[in-house]
Amino acid sequence: MIAFDISNSSDGIKDKLITCLKTVIDPELFINIVDLGLVYAVKFDGKKMLISVQMTLSSKFCPMGDSIIIATKNSLERDFNNFKAEVNVVWEPEWNYKFISPEGLKILGE
Amino acid sequence: MNSSKHQRSLYKIVIAHYSIGAVFFLILSIMFFFSIEVMSGHYFQPMLLALTHTAALGWGTMVIFGALNQLLPVILEKELFSIRMGWWSLLFLVPGIILLVYSFWVFEPGLYMQIGSVLILIGVFLFVLNVLFTITKGKQASSVFAEFILTSCLWLFLTISLGVLMVFNFQYPFLPKEHLQFLRLHAQMGISGWFLLLIIGVSAKLIPMFLLSSYQKTNLLTVSYYLINGALIAFLIDGYLHGLNFNTYFILGLGTSGIGFYFAFLYQCIISRIRKGIDKPMVQSLSSFILLGIGILVLPVILYYHIQNDAYAVQLSVLYGTFIFMGWVSTLILGQTFKTLPYIIWVKHYEQLTGKFKIPLPADLINNRLLSVQLIAFFIFLVSFLVGFLLRISALKYLGAVSLIMCSTSYCLHVFLLLIHKTRTEKYDRI
């Protein structure tokens, strides 16, 4: 479950943030980072024009780790004009398969 | 070194190993074609020695070294100690393998063979040092995966060291026992000590990651580690003192049960996996273990005929070698190449573009047609060569050899196409 902190903004931002983050796909599992449970918190500051994402990776030395972080930042800056995005990677709580959403599990089970 | 510079350096060294390995695979398949007839004879034969060393060093070890440069940080969760050391290792290894293989092929056990073997030893020593320093740096606790990998590297070093002694023994006989006895120990150290332990260590970490297995216990692996190493040490001592004898059955049982524990671990990972769909390269990698299993089944039969002093043991040894190198190791490498290489290429081309543009996924870089040709040709090779070998039908053996050339050609072409991949992007608003 993502913790949202949204200030100085219009309605629908939360949905737009989720839609945007869902375009970032883990290239090995073919699941987006939201359903994979990698995103822990999103802070949207309309005044500072800044979006901060707190997320994790499935393993510390994941070969695609940098790509996923860059994709997250690029996607937010692509969909939110003139906003800056920053991504903070955290290792607590440590990610495990129980973080995957029911939608994600459905894709993996196919 | 910053992250992107480090990635670029890593990319170059991994690609260099994969490319050289692919060329050696092509050479190996051509050598295989010209060695078909001698395979019916004794395995201690110049062309077969050249063939085995091309397979074990130029193909198997070369690709594994490349993959380890990429995968060690993932498995051990720490940066590689030195990429430069990897380059030095490669610099000694390649001319060493060429000299050794050439000298075996024409059988000139003189200076070139000796220089070749020493160059390989230096190359391997540098690689092993790099792995050792990578594992021991930092304060993280050691894992069973790291123990498998480090032990396998030490066995590799011992295998090559004994190999060097045997090369010098050709010209200056000094070894206390006959050459064939040492050849058996050398081969078994390489197969069980290097390839088996390394493949178990790497796959035990990566397969659960790829399959998203909920099985996290490592007890089965620990038991497997001690059984395989115990069996190998027992085989070396008993084999040196008494050669192959009735005790070898027990040692074989010990080692096989070690592999059994590893298979039990794999089974637990597979049944507890969350990801149900398995891609083609992964299916091929997993199926390689069936060939390992068949190879192991041949061992007690070899032993039986050897104890009976029946020459059939020699022929079966060639069959065992084919199952191990051309079956298990090659199948695994063929599968894993197209599991890892597309990611390495993808990171280089798309890492900075991802999220900005619509781009292909790493799996989209694979040429499925070439992959299918490679898989079918390899399957035909295995079936026709092995049936031809067992039933002594030359036409089938040659069909197998030609299929292997087709497989290696498509593999090389596929690797080459990946290397020359051009970046493809589309704007997001066109989706």
As an assembly, this protein is heterodimer
Termini Cα gap of chain B? 38 Å
Classification by helices and strands of chain B: mainly alpha
CATH topology of chain A: GMP Synthetase, Chain A, domain 3
- Total number of beta strands of chain A: 6
Rg of chain B to the nearest angstrom? Answer: 22 Å
Q: Spell out the CATH superfamily of chain A.
A: Fe-S cluster assembly (FSCA)
Largest Cβ-defined interface = A-B, 29 and 30 residues
**Integer average pLDDT of chain A:** 89
How far do the termini of chain A sit from each other? 23 Å
**Gross morphology of chain B:** globular
Task: Indicate how many domains the architecture of chain A comprises.
Answer: 1
User: Helix content range of the residues of chain A, please?
Assistant: 25-40%
Order of helices and strands of chain A: EHEEEEHEH
Report the helical percentage of chain B: over 70%
Please state roughly what percent of the residues of chain B sit in beta strands, choosing from under 5%, 5-15%, 15-25%, 25-35%, 35-45% or over 45%. under 5%
If strands are numbered along the chain, what order do they take across the biggest sheet of chain A? Answer: 1-4-5-6
Structure commentary:
The complex is a heterodimer of chains A (110) and B (431). Chain A has 110 residues and is of the alpha/beta class. Chain A has a single domain, classed as 2-Layer Sandwich (GMP Synthetase, Chain A, domain 3). Helices cover 28% and strands 25% of the residues of chain A. Chain A contains three helices and six strands. Chain A has a four-stranded mixed β-sheet, covered by helices on one side. Chain A has a two-stranded antiparallel ribbon with strand order 2-3. The mean pLDDT of chain A is 89. Chain B is mostly helical and 431 residues long. Chain B has a domain at 1-140. In chain B, helix 1 (3-35) runs antiparallel to helix 12 and helix 10 (312-350) runs parallel beside helix 12 (394-419). Chain B is globular, with a radius of gyration of 22 Å. The A-B interface holds A 23-25, 27-30, 58-64, 66-67, 70-75, 78, 97, 100, 105, 108-110 and B 3, 7, 70, 73-74, 76-78, 209-210, 212, 214, 274-277, 343, 346-347, 350-356, 361-363, 428.
